[in-house]
Amino acid sequence: MITCKDISYSYDGLHQDLEGISYSIKDGEWLGIIGPNGSGKSTFLNILCGLFKPSKGFVTLDEELISKMSNKEIARKIAVLSQQNSFTYSYEVKETVKLGRIAHTSSLFPSWEEQDESAVNNALLMTSTDKMKESFINELSGGERQRVFLAQCFAQDTPYIFLDEPSNHLDLMHTIKILDLLKELQIKEKKTIVTVFHDLNLASLYCDRLLAMKDGRPFVEGNTDLILSEQNLEDLYETSFQIMLNPKTNKKVIIYKSSIL
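and the corresponding structure tokens:
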């Protein structure tokens, strides 16, 4: 379980970007974080996984203070796909995915074992990047690179997977394939998944629970079907919505209303 208590954070030390957040993420659930731009979604995600240090409060990961854990200890438990993935050197795709196994090494000059090779090859297959494994990362499109970094997360083989806009740059086919794959990992392997979503229909389809944020604070949270009401969304985004029910999936479908059409 991941729990935070009285979390506050400021980028400049003057204006509070997050203020007084206490929250718990349940093992084995898929939590979606939604909200308008600038509401603190990505900042909150980065604090939960130890990338940012809160100015106040604390985060515990499986009852251990994350601030007391080494980067490698955290990486053994949490795989993170950031919104902006950067690369200093142009590695081959497979070499990039191999970096996900660093968390499982215990020495400065680690040996490469069969289980490492298997994890990397499986991750390449899962993300359909196996056919480009010898290509260089800088030669790929934005969507292809996104799939490579997802493969790196899968190769890391952690109980927690944190994703900031995983569908960023992906076409529709690969978006659904990746999110279906994540759902399968959640169900079969009891992975805990935390995802920042802008697409409310994807959040509706895949998430068990939603945390809606506004102005650096939780706005409303709970079961996905309960949170996705027209009134909640209109108050959150300050625009109009219509909600229907998909007869096949029994999930809510959110329609965005235009003021001029």
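(Above: one complete record from the training split.) The chain has a mean pLDDT of 91.
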